[in-house]
Specification:
Layout lengths: L7 H11 L31 E6 L2 E7 L4 H13 L7 E5 L3 E4 L38 E4 L14 E4 L6 H15 L7 H9 L12 E7 L1 H8 L15 E5 L2
Antiparallel strand pairs: 1-2, 1-8, 2-7, 3-4, 4-6, 5-6, 5-7
Length: about 250
């Protein structure tokens, strides 16, 4: 592939999309004698945390990755506190993503510009980007401002809807967006297959932290993303959320 080759489609799409995300192994076994119980000295692997997100358009269940513990634990803490209850998906873009978690959205007037809110007196979350975690459809990731460390918002998140890409567009995005962020990064064949079938937003990879994915209710993303929006991409009909831990 030629990384110097430019894709006008990609450049225009990324320019339009990025503004929406900126805020203004097996168990070890011991030998055993016949007739005796097998004893394991390896602690059982904890289950990945599951969170149910109830919206005005249906329910989603998201799995939080153990490989991104800072983001996982922050999200779990906020869900336990009821922080997200009654907040809005305040910014949606058909074919891209749905974004929510701005604390100012709970009591916002109709048409108010949202997306700049954060939890005061709490720092940002250090980036936890992994080559194995990509922005496929249903990916759960944290929004951020344009800080050089790529640290995440302490509360605002987005869920990818995305679209399907062909090999040429994936190559362009890998060269122009992803590898400049992580020169060692190359898409695996399995990851390419996902983007060519299920779809997603590959131009965000290695630039924002993905820390989970929707495992039930992908259709809810489509329903929310299809809502009519105003000039700031805020849905005209409020899309509120409520969350609870399932395990």
């Amino acid at each position: 592939m030629n990384c110097k080759k430019q894709s006008q489609y990609m450049k225009h799409f990324v320019i339009a999309a990025f503004g929406m995300l900126f805020m203004g192994a097996a168990l070890a076994q011991t030998p055993h004698k016949p007739g005796t119980a097998t004893v394991s000295h390896t602690a059982p692997k904890p289950k990945e945390r599951l969170v149910e997100i109830t919206t005005d358009f249906g329910k989603m269940v998201v799995k939080l990755y153990d490989s991104t513990p800072l983001h996982r634990d922050n999200f779990v803490k906020l869900v336990k506190q009821g922080f997200y209850d009654s907040l809005l998906f305040h910014r949606v873009m058909q074919g891209f993503m749905i974004q929510g978690g701005d604390p100012e959205s709970k009591h916002a007037d109709s048409g108010a510009l949202l997306g700049g809110g954060d939890i005061p007196n709490v720092g940002m979350i250090p980036a936890e980007m992994k080559p194995s975690l990509i922005h496929k459809k249903g990916a759960l990731a944290m929004a951020r401002n344009d800080n050089p460390e790529k640290a995440s918002s302490n509360c605002q998140f987005y869920i990818v809807q995305g679209q399907v890409f062909d090999d040429q567009k994936i190559n362009d995005m890998e060269c122009q967006r992803v590898r400049p962020a992580n020169p060692a990064f190359y898409y695996t064949e399995a990851q390419r297959k996902v983007y060519k079938s299920t779809g997603g937003a590959p131009f965000l990879d290695q630039n924002y932290t993905v820390f989970g994915e929707v495992v039930q209710g992908l259709e809810v993303i489509d329903k929310i993303a299809a809502q009519q929006v105003d000039g700031n991409n805020r849905p005209l009909k409020n899309a509120r959320m409520k969350m609870r831990l399932l395990n």
